[in-house]
Structures are given as C-alpha cells and as structure tokens.
Amino acid sequence: MDIESLGVNPDHVALARAVSEIELEVAQLGWDRPSTVYALVPSSTILADPAGLPAAIRQDLEAQVQAFPNHLTAILQEELPGQRIEESLGYLSWPEQVVGMAVSMERVSVPPEAEKDAPSDPDAAISYYATHPDRQEFRIVAGVLRDGQSWSAIRSRDLDDPDKVAQASDLVPDLTAALLATFTDEEE
Q1: DSSP letter for each residue of 4-30
Q2: Domain ranges of the chain
Q3: How far apart, in whole angstroms, are the C-alpha atoms of residue 51 and residue 71?
Q4: Label partner for 37 (CA 20 to 30 A): which of 7, 142, 172, 177?
Q5: In what order do the strands lie in the sheet with 136-145?
Q6: Quick one: what percent of the chain has pLDDT higher than 90?
Q7: Rounded Cα gap, residues 176 and 15, in angstroms
Q8: In which band, very low, low, confident or very high, does the pLDDT at 186 lie, cut at 50, 70 and 90?
Q9: Which domain of life does the UniProt lineage start with (predicted)?
Q10: pTM for the whole thing?
Q11: Closest CA to 174 of 127, 77, 107, 78
Q12: Neighbouring-strand partners of residue 38
C-alpha cells in the first residue's frame, strides 16, 4: 500500500512515514538484531526546544517540518525493563509530548503442522523453531498513535528488498493493540 493513499489524514501519513523510515534504518543494520522501541514525537515539538539539537540536525528537522508539518521524529528508547519486548511493553508509559510509539522486532514463523511437533520446554522450542527447515524469518516494525491509528511494515528475510516490504494499517493487530495499551491510563 502506498503511504500517500491514506488520504487526507496527515497524522496517519506521518505515522506511516515514521514506521517506513524506522524499517529502512533497521534494515540497514542487517538481521539478527534485538527488538527496539521508539517514542514518536512531533518534530515541531522538538524544534520548539532551543537547547540540545546540533545545528545540522536542527536544519534537517526544520526542512522535514517545512515539507510536512506533521512530521514525527522516532527516538530510540535504549533502557527497557524486562528481557523480552512483550515484558517491556507492560511497563511503558509515555509523557504527554510523545504522541505515538513504534517497535521493531524479528520473528520466526513455521507452518501450523510444524507446531504440533514442537517441544513443550520453552528453551527447546526456541531451538526447534530457529532450526526448522520450513521456518520463515520476518522483521516487523509496528507503530501507533495515541488516538488509535496504526501502521506496520513487514519484511521477509527471504525477500530482503526495500521494494518488497508489506505495509498497511492492520497487518499485526495483536501487536498494535499491545502498543496502544502503553497509552492507556491505569484508571481506564
């Protein structure tokens, strides 16, 4: 799906652009990378704070905002609680200026018939899936905005090409629901 086909909702276009940019940057780092989490902040908010931005980054960001006022900046979150991304999501909460979040993760998929032969021991199961001859490996980058909009990009290791990245709003609904939950107040 073409990002620009999202229509007139500039926030959704900004999210789709941010997810696509993250996917391209992560792809340049190669495969077998740890999961990462990003805060999505309006670039205009970052520019409003006069301190902390080197001149070259400020100029680049100003150009991005001038070309697209809803531009979002992805800020890598380096220290996360928990050892797995699924654990970390349960501990995340975001300050007001963070309007969205995204994650990048790699996953292995096997045919359903292979799952019935998987060992029950979690460590043995990981090894089983990682070495299964019919496994397929994917990189998923999913992002959400506080208002519930989502966008995802999925790249297969077998078709590792920027022109072969699947993108849409509803590719990984369980993951995007988990990401949205990080914006839910405990009172809700």
Answers
A1: GGG-S-HHHHHHHHHHHHHHHHHHHH-
A2: 3-181
A3: 20
A4: 7
A5: 72-77, 36-42, 100-109, 136-145, 150-156, 166-168
A6: 55
A7: 13
A8: low
A9: Bacteria
A10: 0.85
A11: 107
A12: 76, 102
